[in-house]
Fold TetR/AcrR family transcriptional regulator.
Amino acid sequence: MTSADDRSDADVDGRAPRRQARGQRRIEEILDAAGRVFVREGYDAATTNAVAKEAGISPGSLYQYFRNKDEIAQGLAVRYAAGLAELQRAAFDGVDPQGLSLEDLVRRVIDPVVAFNVAHPAFKTLFARTDPPPGLAEATAPLDASIHERAAALVAARAPQLAPADAARVSVVATQLVRAMMPLVVAASGAERERLAAEARSAVAAYLRVALG
Amino acid sequence: MTSADDRSDADVDGRAPRRQARGQRRIEEILDAAGRVFVREGYDAATTNAVAKEAGISPGSLYQYFRNKDEIAQGLAVRYAAGLAELQRAAFDGVDPQGLSLEDLVRRVIDPVVAFNVAHPAFKTLFARTDPPPGLAEATAPLDASIHERAAALVAARAPQLAPADAARVSVVATQLVRAMMPLVVAASGAERERLAAEARSAVAAYLRVALG
DNA sequence: GGAGAATACGAGCAATCACTCGCATATGTC
DNA sequence: GACATATGCGAGTGATTGCTCGTATTCTCC
């Protein structure tokens, strides 16, 4: 996985170009622009030329930093994986998951996820798809993996008696439930958004109460 | 809405061509082929030329029956809406929903839906998308509406005390949960598929038990 | 201040795709 | 069997798009 991440800014020969500070800034700008375009147009309909235009650069410059569209998605996915990991770390900072009620545990997981989705609307264009095209699936695979890893760890901690296959299924299902609710929550606003977030928490908690025995 | 539906077989001048039996058969063949192509490639990546080839006809013949790609999706959606309605009618034939336990009710709704998804794998390529492109959204809007209508009717029957806004939210959320689970269920097979279907039933039932009060 | 590398440009190429058009054949009706 | 219409064909078109390439500018380091 780490070697795959490194490849993302490696040359065809495996030689990584040495980025100047300007280049690093450009990469961030491109990713920001890509997020906005993905939200506006959807991933499939988004064109690389549109991303370049949104970033205020030429198509040629874009391809200086990303070899293709999927690699842009991958860049965003890496960002998001880091942001989510940080959020979850903060949510459980100095807290023992075992000591929480199921409702509190679910709240601590979902509320930051909701906040993250609201703050980064492009996130769901990459992650909340039930049938991503192959290239996008590959780009977001590490993100998916890290999310499932965290979910599986929580399930294992709460229900150590569960057979591994059952635990895996429960964490996949719970993740899927959250994934499905995010577009609904983000699409709403104000009080309705909070109500939908509450429904998401309620659904996941209710499911887990049954599934974890 | 009804006039929009009629427009689908209407000419530009509003004159509907009179189909021969041969033409009706072709339409069915094209829809069958489109379903297979959508499953193989996904809706966005599927090309109309590929659909024509899969159906064993020329692109020109395809456009004899469908004005564009979205209209093919709409044709499939109409088929699916009818199939689902029939399935649900059969599931509740001579049964009073009020007299069932929540678990039985959920089972009667979800099991046919699972069977339908397994039998028609293209269904989820149209329906189980969290962010469909605008054209597809328009094509599947009637299908979405009829599904939500049925869900809302069941919710209203079970929880007449719920405010309309709350009832609507519950039925939307429940529908979304089912929608999200279908790709997981269909992707699995054999015993694992049945276990995932059981998780879907369990999640929806657990949610509804809380949400319906 | 000069060499080498990174950054930047943007016109345009090659490929793809939704859809058309002119014309031929099949079908149903009188 | 003749007429009208439905069905059928498939090469081709106009538009789009991911991506390249030749070239010009800016940065870093000596």
Q: What stands out?
A: Residues 134-158 of chain A form the longest helix (25 residues). Chain A touches chain B through 33 residues (CB under 8 Å). Confidence is low (pLDDT under 50) at residues 1-14 of chain A.
